[in-house]
Design a protein that fits this description.
Structural class: mainly alpha
Radius of gyration: 18 Å
Number of helices: 3
Number of domains: 2
Order of helices and strands: HHH
Strand content: under 5%
Oligomer: single chain
Largest sheet: none
Low-confidence stretches: none
């Protein structure tokens, strides 16, 4: 189902590993938190910028202008 939903392959693989541990009864070995996968690229800086936005304090016009700015930066190929 996750593959059909378009989740990245490494996410599906990790989920399968966790499921196997749970099914085998060795769930105690799974840490309470999951460390980030070091094989994944770092998050895109624009993504972090969007996460930090306080959308509820922006006017609709400010939000639209910010979205247009982000779209333009992505179009120009801004990368991490």
């Amino acid at each position: 189902m996750a593959r059909l939903a378009g989740l990245p392959g490494n996410v599906v693989t990790r989920a399968e590993e966790v499921l196997k541990r749970l099914e085998s009864g060795s769930a105690q070995e799974i840490p309470a938190y999951l460390a980030p996968d070091p094989t994944l690229p770092p998050p895109h800086p624009i993504l972090e910028e969007v996460r930090q936005m306080d959308l509820f304090s922006m006017t609709p016009l400010e939000a639209m202008n910010k979205l247009a700015e982000i779209k333009e930066r992505l179009k120009k190929g801004e990368s991490p």
